[in-house]
Amino acid sequence: MRTVYLGTSEFAAIVLEALAASAHRPALVITRPDRPRGRGRRLQSPPVAERARALGLQLRQPATVNDDEGRAAIAAAAPETVVVCAFGAMIREPLLSEHLMLNVHPSLLPRWRGAAPVERAIIAGDERTGATIMRVTAELDSGPVALAAEEPIGAQDTYGTLSVRLAALGAGLLLQALDAGPAQLTFTEQDGTAATYADKITAEDRLLDPAATAQACERRVRALTPHIGAAVLTADGERLGVLAATARARRGGDPTAGELAFTADEVLLGCGEQTTLALDVVQPPGRRAMDAAAFLRGRRS
Fold first, then answer.
1. Which residue of 59, 72, 110, 166 has the fewest C-beta atoms within 10 A of its own C-beta?
2. Which helix (H) or strand (E) segment is 49 a member of?
3. What's the pTM value of the predicted model, to 2 decimals?
């Protein structure tokens, strides 16, 4: 089947690799424009752009896919299906009605519609999530569902480990849908009353809340590792990055809720409901990530 692919993130790049290796190799890949990133604010391409170049695929990066340039590029590729995956921008009329569009979404819709479904599932303590193939409609992630499959969320899963599995799961479902052909798919409307929304991760979301339990804080750390990163505020107002942590019941000598303590061999955050979060891997501002022991040695030196 002739396809055009719209995607941006690393998750979308993994799905693109599977699509490119199939009988449905995209005639065109469209992604977002390059953006300044990092401390140097140097222009960097989205992961999908880098992967498309490596795979030898035709690539376009219009300012918006909805303008005349973007629509014309898609029309010239004459797709039977446009595949959308973690594109990061709304697709609007008239483009929306010009092509059949299938979306690869990393959740079991209607749970976790929106920008950060993998992170929000881990933060919420969900025991399972999955991948869904749905038809793109004007409302965010609300289109009818063709295929879906579950994936358990393990107690040690981070965004990094879970998202890779979901990308592979979603890619498999996508190829199954394309192999069957749209005419053979049965689309079922979502139950909008059961919808939850996975809002984009903000700077505030990154901060650990010591009023919450250590277990909730530990889930937040896993949900934001390794791509965004959680953090805790030190007494002098600096953000100490947290890349791995362990929750436990409060022990004698542990800090009280809201207190950050540095012992001889542990960095501890006192949390709610008599719990403690041990910060196992941290990242001081402007420095590399390190385990708690190395961080504490640096404080003592």
1. 72
2. helix 47-54
3. 0.96
